[in-house]
Prior knowledge:
The protein is α+β, with helices and mostly antiparallel strands. The protein contains six helices and four strands.
Amino acid sequence: MRPEYKAILESKRGGGKIRTQRNWAKANTAAEQLLKGGLREKAIILAVLHWCEGHKKTCEFINSDGKMVEIYLTILRKMLNIPEDRLKLTLRIFSGMNRKRCLGYWLSVTKTPVRKFKIRYNDGGTRGRTPYGMCRVTVRKGADTLKTILSLINRVSDEITCNKAPVAQLD
């Protein structure tokens, strides 16, 4: 290999790692700003909701509680400014459930057009424990959004554990 090409290749080595570090730094800065701003409570709610019910590798949240899904979506839309075309909604129901009733419920909760929903059926079940099935919210191209949410989770958990008072004092 010619020396000038070898130098070019050497200079490009590690670019993905540097880009990843840069993206995490941006996410940490965004999380810090959200927690210091006027939307602090919503940022904490987003962190806790995703921490409990979100996927840790992709920007997905799934739940059967309409209020939780509604709050999660509201925060994504209004606080993180996620546009509608990046939101994908999947409804999971059992084959014995009333498809129209379940879809109608989630349409009213999510305030999303019917064309945005994918409907999936669980394997051969005739009923589930939830009356309307489960709704999955996926943020397409959500790697940066996920990094911001995970940074929020880390900051909130650090804040709580570092500032906690002693449980008990023994004499």
